[in-house]
Amino acid sequence: MASLNSETFVHTFARGLRVIEVMSEVTTPSTLAVLAQRTGLSRTVLRRFLLTLIEVGMADTDGKQYWLTPGVLRLGMSYLSSLPYWQEAQFALEELCATVGQSCALSVLDKGEIVYLQRQHAKRILPLSPALGSRMPAYAVSMGRVQLAGLEDGKLDAYLETADIRALTGRTIIDRAKLGSMIRRIREDGYAWGEREFDDSICGLAVPVRDLAGRVIAAINVSLASHEFDHDSAVAAFLPQLRIAASRIRAVTPAM
Question: Are 250 and 212 in contact (CB under 8 A)?
Fold first, then answer.
């Protein structure tokens, strides 16, 4: 990975991506002044980036405010379409959701967080219902823990030493040694259970998605209402179907 001072690091390109990132965090059209404050760029420099984005069809303006257009989705869809298992994962999750009657999802691990790539909703929407692209801290949710369990020991130790681990509910495990032991046990169990650690109303059961070489590349889960399920009832009801769905996705995933 190139450092900020490396000859291979293109600062202009990085700043342009930062503009897109900031605009994606703003839910309403924003003025040049607001975007300049949030990006840390001067108005003159920022205006050039915005005019470039408008020219390539990724942003628009009414002369006073600026916003992203659907054209920016080309960037996100480029990633999704590059995943060999993307289409099969959608089919597998649709079938899983219909079979178990619960919301389910697919995520990948990115810099200590999980990122939602697929989401299938049951008829009853849970209070916490992440959208495509949503991020959550890996240590506090079942899909995150099952992917952390797939890391090599050195990478897992580094994560546990440096991660910003904090209590999100009264039940969040924040003791790093205890968390490490739990994650290593997940390797043996082949699944992860999380209960009311990210949100008091939600629990979840997750299994890894592996490539054909056996490496963990993603995770799928079922999200459940915490007042309706505990560990044992969730494992009995959903673990077999989760593993079937994961194996279906693996079947179309080459070794990385």
Answer: yes
Q: Enumerate the domain spans of the chain.
A: 11-74, 83-250
pLDDT for 187-210, tens place per residue?
A: 999 999 999 999 999 999 999 999
CATH assignment of 11-74, given 1.10.10.10, 1.20.1440.230, 3.40.50.12780, 1.20.1250.20? 1.10.10.10
- Which of 168, 141, 162 lies closest to 224 in space, CA to CA? 141
Residue 204 backbone zone (phi > 0: left; psi -120 to 50: alpha; other: beta) = beta
Q: Can 11-74 and 83-250 be said to share one CATH topology?
A: no
195: β partners? 203
What φ, ψ does residue 96 adopt, rounded to 5°?
-65, -45
Question: Top-level CATH class of 83-250?
Answer: alpha beta
User: β-pairing, 135-137 with 113-120?
Assistant: antiparallel
Q: How confident is the model at residue 9 (pLDDT cuts 50, 70, 90)?
A: confident
Q: Strand pairing of 135-137 and 30-31? A: unpaired
Structure token pair of residue 23: 């605009």
- Alpha-carbon distances of 32 from 19, 27, 99, rounded to whole Å: 11, 15, 49
Q: What is the CA radius of gyration of the chain?
A: 20
Backbone phi and psi for residue 241, each to the nearest 5 degrees, phi listed first: -70, -35
Q: Which helix (H) or strand (E) holds 193?
A: strand 192-195
